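Please check both lines for our workbook:

___
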Amino acid sequence: MAKFMKHEVIGKILEVGLIPLFYNGDVEIAKKIVQACVNGGAKVVEFTNRGDFAFQVFSELARWCNKEFNDVILGVGSVIDPMTAALYINCGANFVVSPVFNPEIAKICNRRKVPYIPGCGTPSEISTAEEMGCDLIKIFPGSRLKPGFIKSVRGPSPWVNLIPTGGVDATKENIYSWIKAGAVALGMGSRLIRKDLVAARDFNAITKKVEDCIRWIQEARGTPLFLGVEHAGIYLEEKVATETADWYARTFGFEKKEGKLTCFISGNGPGRIEIIKTSSPIKCHIAIRVSNFEAACEYLKKMGIELEKPQMSNGYKVVFLKDPDPAGNRVHLVYIPS
């Protein structure tokens, strides 16, 4: 059964813009590949149905993902018949991808509220798939259709959401060409999760390639560098911190997520309050969310603003400015994997 609602999956694909896809018959290696993609910022990953007992590997991988992550969306690819789609949905697939369009798969996925992303190669196929409830369309093979195909289709049908797969290169130039042509996301397999890197167990290199691709996608979209205030952090003694968090939750109906050292308070809109349990003399810190961590750091350095040593973990990146703001509050940049 799918863990995520249909609109959540579609929204995350549109937000991140990248779907890494792979097959590996060794579940332990498959876990490391998914972890590498997540560390690079890709929260949507496709496992392709390409080997004997692939559904058993996927089932174990899905269980592991559900246990390890709260926000990683795992789906299945290379599905060409409705029986296989149903099998993988029952194993936990959150979306189903095909190299072809099969209306019977669409029926299965629609009934189970799971996105179906069919492979189409003509405007008529795309239109028919949309009539069957497909919100996202895979353009396949991308190596033959090229970015010009997407641009041409979106001319008379600007509402279509097209994802080229097959022949999409993990290079800035190629990614720019697809996104500028109107692709809403990119499916990338062996040119991103390269066999030589997997064979060498160089999962850090895969993470770096995923990071680069997501950065180039955001740049090609023209995403602003500084996205706004991610959260404001207040430093309070533990008892006062808990009382303050409870007050915000009670007064405004905000959600409280309390950890050992911090509480996060949030509502339905953007932004959060972080309450840090400490006796630190620091009054407050402001976290500025960025779309491109490295570019944001370089921008501030060129302005003469000194930065402390960056901190990185599981795809998250944080760096504090050495000097406070004019009111004496600390400021840090934060990159959060989408």
User: Anything to note?
Assistant: Residues 21 and 46 are 4 Å apart (CA to CA). The chain has twelve helices and 17 strands.
